[in-house]
Amino acid sequence: MLLLLLLLLLPLLTSCVRYNFASYYAEFEPPARYDHPYDGPVVEQVLSLAQVREICGYENWGCAWITAGTCYRVLLSDGPVSVSFLRRHETAHCNGWPGDHPRD
Fold it and tell me: Which of 16, 47, 49, 86 is the 20 to 30 Å CA partner of 77?
């Protein structure tokens, strides 16, 4: 009986942990006007999840900021999305894309 119950619940449990990365890419891909190389110096660190969370906050896979004209990027090394995607995303923030990710 317990086995039958687990078999019935298994599809529900696996759907809870599955993430639709296609929608993630669509939602967090930068608009064209911000999607270009940063015009200035860039300092980038590609780090572990623990290190990224320490610098960027618990819910983030990366972050970026500008100090004295330099774009600083922190990117997750081994996450569920590619480093190149995170690089584009964070560079867009250095190019002025607001943190609430408007689609303009």
Answer: 16
